[in-house]
């Protein structure tokens, strides 16, 4: 049994109704080192959200990309904080992180 077939059996066992062992992205992810457990977990997440095999493949693809970025030292410029929703305060604060020439002065009324 090929590794892609074994992964598809595991994804079916995790509840995903349709799989494709000859999917080109599946083969590419296996080539990049994705493990069977990653596919099983992705299949569970896809099933929970009512999504398809392609969605599960996308989850694994994203996980491998995140791992590759961490290994290369590429991370979020604002640090490791990645909000799920837009955070205007964090957005404004990340722009002032390295500005040593900014002076904080208390507000005063000039009239």
Compact overview of the structure:
Helices cover 53% and strands 0% of the residues. The model has no long low-confidence stretch (mean pLDDT 81).
Helix and strand pattern: HHHHH
Characterize the biggest β-sheet: none
- Tell me the fraction of residues in β-strands, as a range: under 5%
Residue stretches low in confidence (pLDDT < 50, at least 5 long) are none
Supply Rg.
22 Å
Structural class by SSE content: mainly alpha
Q: What integer is the average pLDDT? A: 81
Secondary structure: number of strands? 0
Instruction: Estimate the global geometry from the Cα principal axes.
Output: elongated
Assign a percent range to the helix content: 40-55%
Tell me the span between the first and last alpha carbons.
82 Å
Q: How many helix segments?
A: 5
What does this entry look like structurally?
With about 110 residues, the chain is an all-alpha fold. Helices cover about 55% and strands about 0% of the residues. It has 5 helices and no strands. The chain is elongated and about 80 Å long. The termini are far apart.
Topology diagram in text:
Layout: H1 3-13, H2 24-31, H3 36-48, H4 53-72, H5 88-94
List its traits:
5 helices; 53% helix; mainly alpha; 111 residues
């Amino acid at each position: 049994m090929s590794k892609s077939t074994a992964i598809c059996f595991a994804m079916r066992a995790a509840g995903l109704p349709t799989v494709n062992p000859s999917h080109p992205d599946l083969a590419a992810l296996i080539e990049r080192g994705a493990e069977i457990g990653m596919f099983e977990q992705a299949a569970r997440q896809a099933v929970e959200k009512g999504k398809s095999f392609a969605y599960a493949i996308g989850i694994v693809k994203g996980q491998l990309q995140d791992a590759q970025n961490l290994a290369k030292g590429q991370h979020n410029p604002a640090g490791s904080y990645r909000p799920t929703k837009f955070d205007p305060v964090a957005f404004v604060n990340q722009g002032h992180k390295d500005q040593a020439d900014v002076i904080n002065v208390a507000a005063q009324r000039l009239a």
